[in-house]
Structures are given as structure tokens and as C-alpha cells.
Amino acid sequence: MVTKKGLTAFMAICFAFTFVLFSSFALAEDLLPGMVDTTKYKKKGPWLAGRAALGDTNAWMTMFSLHFNYGIEEKYQKDFKGFKVASCFWNPVKQIADIEQLVAQGVDILFVDPASEGALVGAVEEVYDMGIPVVLASTGVNTDKYTTWVSRDNIKAGFLYANWMGKKLNGKGNVVVLMGMAGSSYAEDVLRGVNQGLGAFPDIKILETAYCDWSPVKAKETMEVFIQSNPKIDGIISDGGQMGLGAVEALLDAGKKIPPITADDWNGWLRMAKQHNIDFLAVSGGNPLSLTCVQLATKIMRGEPVPKIVEYPIVTFEKDQLDQYYRPDLTDQYFAVHELPEAWIKKNYSK
Amino acid sequence: MKEKYASFLAQIVKDHIVYLFLIAVLIIAAILSPQFFKLQNLFNILRQASALGLLAIGQTVVVIAGGIDVSVAAIMQLAGVTIAEITKAQDKLVFVAIVTVLFMGTAIGFGNGLLVAKRKVQPFVSTLFVGLLVTGLRLLVTKATPSGGLPAFIRFLGSDSLGPIPNAVIIFGCTALMINFILSKTTLGRSIYAVGGNPATAFFSGVKVDRITIFSYMLCGFLAAIAGLVLVGYLGYADQNIGIGYEWDSIAAVAVGGVVLGGGRGKISGTIAGVLLMTVLLNLVLILKLSVEYQFVIRGVVIIAAVAFYAGQWRWKRLFLSKGV
């Protein structure tokens, strides 16, 4: 015999159970594809952040680190109680040790700019399995055990170089290609993009492709050889301004006309482009993506969903927009596309 | 008489086998690519070789004296960055800047020499960590953002030519002649060989071993600073990363040139051939449009072969006698 009161209580329990069940389904459905549920990381701030860094050994890395520092020390200052940084200077073995040390110091969230896609897999997976959110900055790691990864689309950058060159040469001509480091996934991605882009221009011939390790000296030495062996070079696809600078120096020494050339937003390159009235395409190198990493870190620690992979947008500009980007009052090591306030720029890049 | 002549020829071949490799590479280059022997290309090769050549000459002196210096690339980079920082691309302070840079290079060499000669620190260890210290201080002071621009005079040193010959080549050639003279014709040179060959014997013969060791490192530091100026002048720009890896290239050039890494034996002429062989190979593989994998393989094979021939105990004399020379 079921009483009326008991039936009401039973109905109430069933209703509550159904509500909870449907609510959880509804919440799960709110998480869009490609998004990561970070509720398990939710923690009251301020937090201690750690960064296993590559090391500020070049202009790109220096500005990349400045964006990290600006994010932690100023823009999201209230959210963080400290920022511990260990630099491995491109040595993956040291970076693994750095990660272990940062974890031992009790970081709440870990940023990694990986020195290797393969060698860091174990270390990154271990931290992730310990329940510490991992934010990958720039280069990826061959695992899906990370929380979020912010990167520039390097294939797209190569495609943009090639597409611009194809249009600039009206679909016909001879080009030389200067890439970064042979065997690095970054350089191979950019080169893949260049080849994809030039596929649309069958009458553009790649005369030579060389890897110059982003070194202006190697680019100049290589370009001197190319000038000797190829009397007609109509365009230069260079992955970055430093190699572009070396290539242009070689052309100037040989008394040759400077053809259209691709580069990036590095101020040293922009100075040279201004000085010699060079027809160029600048594709931004993307060093401000580290600030996006910090912003995502605050969301993760608040338990808000974040995308698994974030593609940092590429900015391009040409000769006619040079005056908007070139800063003669700053050193060559400044990059024109950034997200730093003017005070930080003046403090770090004033001549 | 015939035997004496064969001995003489055998000695020349033994001492300069790297030149045979160089000539072989040049002949192959002539057959495979007519562009290689264009005058402009040859001057390009010499100009590209100049900075490494200056570095390798200093390294040769240190190695003959029984040491090794892996801080040379750090000194080079310091020189390039310092000249840009002091001059801010203006010619006004260029001579003060050059003197400062040369003094810094020599002072770092002095520090290396003191550590090796007086504190008896292993040369590889002391120069490795002095190099690290110099690099760290440079990054700290410049915050990895040096100003970059160079005065016209530095560009003149590294990029321009006096007549048809690039200035960098003239500096390299004069330095090579001068150091060769010191090593082969002076008491100082003989002392350097003696210290490298057997320091104890040299000491008992009255050679001031410590002073010679310190001198060799100071000279190496001085030449590394000049090499830094020539390299940034060649590029027309000073950057943190210019010169990375040059310490190993300089040691490789010295070894390829037949200088014994244990000390006491070797010649500047061998080192020059080693530098040229390495630079020519780089130029040739690019002219031949080889893919990057083959570039590495060919450069590696030729250089290993040259070193292996030096190391091998070949009976050159018998070869010449059997041919009836």
C-alpha cells in the first residue's frame, strides 16, 4: 500500500534525478567541439605559474618572453602570485629536468615552449597525468595529453609567401627559396606551404632551395652562390627578415637589382626595406601568441572551457604600409606586430 | 741523391696533403660547374673564408702550444655586438670602439691563459666556461636586443674591396703571413712549438712555459675579436647569433689542415688549406644544387678523408721511389 505522501516523495526524487541527469547532458552539449572541459583545474587564485622556456637567445624569443612577462606581471597581475621560468637553451634533455623542477616547486599551471616535438612527450604527459594543466606555446608535442596549444599556422605562412610571390610575378618567373633549419618541423611546414602555394603558378620555377638556419651570414653566403649560378632571379622567398637581410646584402654587393622578397615584421628588415625601397611581403612571426597563452591560463584555472588548439592569427603587410609598421626610433630587434603597451616597447627597444 | 729528393717530396706531400684534397675538389668543381671559376665566385669564397680563417689562425697557435680554445665564437659575437653598441652605426666613435673590442678579446684570452697556465685548468673546460660566461654577460647587458647597425668603416673592412681584392681577404692574408713568420722564423715561434711538444723539456730548456701559454691565448682572443669585426662587416649587421658554431669550425679547419691537436706540430699553411677546403666544399655543393642531405654527406666524407690521410702512416717516400723519381 503506497501512501499519498510516499508517492509524492517518490515522484519528487524521480524528478530531481531526471533534472540532474538532463542538466549534465545539457552542460556536456554546451561544450563545443574542439573545446576542453577545464572544471577539474578550477582553483581559487592567485596562482603560481611556471614556464619551461627555450631561452631568450634571439630577438623573436626575447619579444615572445616579454609577452609572457607582460601578461603575468601586468595584464593579469591579480591572478598570479608568481612566475617561475627555467630556460633550457634549446636542449630538450635540460628542458625535461626543468619541467620536473618546476613541478617540484608546486606550480599550478605550466607553460612549455617545447625544444622538441618528440623528446618532450613523456615529460608533458607526466605533468598532465598529475592533474597540472599544460599550455603549449608555439611548437607542439606529439601527444594529445596537454590542455591547450597556441601556435601560428606555419603551412599557411608558407602559402602566403608563395601566393604573394606568384601574383607579384604575374605567374611567371624564377625564384629562390631560403628556409630555416633542415629537418625542423617548423621549416618543413613552411616549405610545404610554399610548395602548395606555388602549385597554383606552374610557370614559376624554383631555381634553388637552401636551408640557412635563419642566419643572415649563411643567407648571404648562399645567395652569393645563387647569384653566380643563376643570372636571372625574379623573386626571393625568404622565411623571415634576418635571412632576407643577408640575401639583400649579397645582391647589393653584386650590384644586382633587388627583386620582390618575402620576410617578416622584424624591425631590422623593415629598416633595410625602407632604406632600399624594397618590394616585400611581411608575414608576422607571431611572437605575441604567448600573451594568448597567459589569457587561456587564467580561463583554465577558473574552470572555463578553452579550445584544444588555438591558431594565432597571421598579419601581413607590404611596402605601401611600411610607415605604419617601421619604427626608426626603436632597435632592429623589435617586431612590428605585437600586443605590448608602448611603455613596455620603449623600455625594452628604445635606441 | 734520388733518395734525398724522394724524401723531400714525401715530406711535402705528408705536410700538405690537404692541398691535394683542395686541388682535387677544385678540379672536380671545374669539371662539374664552369660558374665555380668565375673570378667573382672565387673572391666570394675567399671573402667568406676570411673570418673563419682569422679565427682558425688564432686557434692554430693555441693548439700548437698544446691547448684548445672553444671561447673564440663567444669573443667573436661579443666583438660584433660591442662595436654596434658603442658606435650606434656612426663612424664618430669607430676607432675607440675597435680598440675597446680588441682589448676585450685580448683580455678574455689573458683570462683563458691564466686559468690554463697558472690554475692548471684543462683548456677545454676553462675556455668552454669562459665562453659561456662571456655569452651570458653579453645577453644580460644587451637584453638579447643589440642595436644592430654598424658604422660604414666596419662595412668597409668586411664587405668592400681594395681594387679587385676584398679587404677581408687582405686582412686574412696579412695576418696569416705575419703569424707564419712568427711561428717559423722567431724564437717566440720555436718556443710555442716547444711548449706544445713537451712542456717539461721546454721548461728545462729555459722557455717560460706559462708566459708562452698565456701569450697564445691572448693572441687567439685578439684574432677572434678581429674575426668578429670582419664577420659583422661582411654582413653589414651585428646580431647575437652571428658566429654560432664557428668555434667548432675553427677546430675542424685546424685538424683538417694537419695541425696535431695534441700540440707541438702544425703549420699556418695547413690551416689555411683546411679553411679553404671547408669553404670551397660549401660553395661547391650549393653550385651543384645538391639536396641538403647530400650536402652534409659530401662535406663530411671529404673532410673525414682529408683528416684520415693525415693521420695515416703513409709511405710516401716509397711511392715516389717506386715511380722512379
Average pLDDT of chain B, rounded to a whole number, is 88
Named CATH architecture of chain B:
Orthogonal Bundle
Q: Quick one: how many beta strands of chain B?
A: 2
Strand content of chain B: under 5%
Q: What top-tier CATH class of chain B fits best?
A: Mainly Alpha
Superfamily (CATH H level) name of the largest domain in chain A: Response regulator
Largest interface, chains and sizes: A-B, 37 and 34 residues
What count of structural domains of chain B? 1
**Apparent shape of chain B:** globular
Number of domains of chain A: 2
Note the gap between the termini of chain A. 91 Å
Overall pLDDT level of chain A: 91
Helix content of chain A: 40-55%
The biggest sheet of chain A amounts to:
6 strands, parallel
- Taking pLDDT < 50 over at least 5 consecutive residues as the criterion, the unreliable ranges of chain A are 24-29
> Which fold name is given in CATH as the topology of chain B?
ABC transporter involved in vitamin B12 uptake, BtuC
CATH top-level class of the largest domain in chain A: Alpha Beta
Structural class of chain B: mainly alpha
Strand order of the largest sheet of chain A: 3-2-4-5-6-13
